[in-house]
Amino acid sequence: MSESSPPAAAPPPVFDDAFRARLADLFAWRRDVRRFSREPVDEAALRTCLDLAALAPSVGNSQPWRFVRVSEPRRRAAVIASFERCNAAACATYADEQRTLYARLKLAGLREAPVHLAVFCDSGTGAGHGLGRATMPEMLRYSVAACIHAFWLAARAHGIGVGWVSILEPTVVTDALDVPEGWDLVAYLCVGHPVEEHADPELVRHGWQERHPEAARLHER
């Protein structure tokens, strides 16, 4: 091999049937967790999950995700207060049995989860030099969503549960966390060890919404 020749690329891994079956289990058992134990999350495991999440694809290789751990009690209290306001307002939009059912749902584990992670999109990042964003600037936020899903799967594989809380006021949360200008909230995650495990989603189990039988339908054109 000459000095100018590039090094030989490592062969790609071979994913066999056994691996694919376990991967299917991981996808099926990924759950939006709302009931957490107060057991601390191992810091090394959390760091590993974040490192794996950072392997997610991003437009222009911009990697616009910014994870913020929320630990200060006053900041957490501001987030919880926002959730409670929004949750009460949402409940009031329903009527009769649906309102009763909504009121019974546990929609966040904000008080129990040992780890809170706010995930932002750095909309002002220069990384990626704008590639792929001129016609679809929302690709930055989509990239953050892909990273969050990767983190979710990695956490599940490490026995850690994740709950995505969307019943929040983004501006209130952003102000409470005092993040840099241009960081837009995409997700607020509760992270910890689940106190119970279920194969079916919570909203299916409690009668809110069944799985759509044609959710994976391929539309031909």
TrEMBL record:
Which protein, by its recorded name, is this?
Cob(II)yrinic acid a,c-diamide reductase
Q: Which residues cross the membrane?
A: none
Q: Which UniProt keywords apply?
A: Oxidoreductase
Q: Which residue numbers delimit the Nitroreductase domain?
A: 28-193
Which NCBIfam families would you find in this protein's record?
A: BluB (TIGR02476)
| InterPro entries (UniProt xref) | BluB, Nitroreductase, Nitroreductase-like, Nitroreductase/BluB
Q: Does the keyword DNA damage apply?
A: no
Pfam families from the UniProt entry: Nitroreductase
What's its EC? 1.16.8.1
Which GO terms fall under molecular function for this chain's record?
oxidoreductase activity
Species per Swiss-Prot/TrEMBL record: Methylorubrum extorquens DSM 13060
